[in-house]
Write a structure and sequence with these properties.
Layout lengths: L1 E2 L3 E3 L2 E7 L6 H4 L7 E7 L2 E6 L6 H12 L1 E5 L3 E6 L2 H14 L1
Parallel strand pairs: 3-4
Antiparallel strand pairs: 1-3, 2-3, 4-5, 5-7, 6-7
Length: about 100
Amino acid sequence: MQASPLREVGKVTLRLLNLPDAALLAPALSDLEMGEVRAAVAGSRCGVASAAEGVNASEVLRSALETCGGRGGGHATLAQGQVERSEDFLDLIARRIGEA
């Protein structure tokens, strides 16, 4: 697993993960601390989890997928999907969180 350093974006702690296996996606998106947003990609599978007030995981995921292609959904605290251009996904999430 390749993880970027934690980033503080306003009141949000952001962790971005590049996983070697899609089976790791669900565990990687669980057990968040309050105020944390976690995004992960594993091949064509992707996901976003949020324990941060005002950050809806489903909206963040869909926003990224509109740009890099793919489909997915979920709810305010957890969303998953498939991405066409996975190399762009984590950067788009970071930008979206910075705009929130």
